Amino acid sequence: MTFNDRSTLLSHLKTRRSGKPRDMVAPGPSDAEIDDMIAIAARTPDHGKLSPWRFVVIPRDRRAAFAALLRGAYADENPDATEPQLEACDRFAQEGQALIVVLSSPVESHIPLWEQRMSTGAATMNLLHAAHAMGYVASWLTGWAAFSPRVRDAFGSADEAIAGFVYIGSPGRPLDERPRPDLARVRTVWAG
Questions:
Q1: Rounded CA gap, 11 and 184, in Å?
Q2: pLDDT at 119 over 90
Q3: What single-letter DSSP state applies at residue 61?
Q4: pTM for this one?
Q5: How does the average pLDDT of the chain come out, rounded?
Q6: Sign of CA dihedral 83, 63, 36, 113
Q7: How many CA within 13 A on the CB side of residue 39?
């Protein structure tokens, strides 16, 4: 199977596959391509036109600072942290050629918070689609750092939440398929 087939939109959607950040290599997207990806991501369902999300790009030259932030936060939250666990923080910060933190940034509105959070998820998925459509691979990760108040505070405020870390680059190895859900398990017909 050819993954992320860009011959048609439908082909792309049928073959979409994330790449593992640890397997991503250069080239990565340029700053202009990242801006285009974010503009595409923002073309998402958004009841009330609130834009309840933000995208924070972590440039390559700030990855060491991001690693230090992760190490410090992990050590503070896990006083018995081992060196291999702290090294995992370093790897998390350095993988991928581009790294974008997506924040759920709710707006005071009559639009329910749940809808605003779903819009953030849709924007994040659009970011992946944009990266794949431009010929890159991307991956949306969360993990402990997405739920760490200290990490969140480095990128946003207490009323925001990290929806994920999106890594973008070129595939360094062929992509592997992963198990997909059985349609009979996820699709039902309402009988009224």
A1: 22
A2: yes
A3: G
A4: 0.95
A5: 96
A6: positive
A7: 6
Mean pLDDT of 78-102: 97
Q: Are 5 and 74 in contact (CB under 8 A)?
A: no
State residue 1's pLDDT score: 80
- Among the listed residues 101, 99, 100, 111, the one whose alpha carbon sits nearest the alpha carbon of residue 52: 111
The DSSP string of 85-134 is HHHHHHHHHH-SSEEEEEEE---SSSS-HHHHHHHHHHHHHHHHHHHHHT
Q: Are 55 and 100 in contact (CB under 8 A)?
A: yes
DSSP state of 84: H
Q: 161 with 142: CB under 8 angstroms?
A: no
Could you give the CA distance from residue 114 to residue 157 in angstroms, rounded to a whole number?
18
For residue 150, with 0-12 CB atoms within 10 Å meaning exposed, 13-18 middle and 19 or more buried, which class applies? Answer: middle
User: Residue 191 — pLDDT band, cuts 50, 70, 90?
Assistant: very high
pLDDT at 166 over 90: yes
- Contact (CB, 8 A) for 120 and 53: yes
Tokens of residue 73, six digits: 């936060």
Task: Decide if pLDDT at 11 tops 90.
Answer: yes
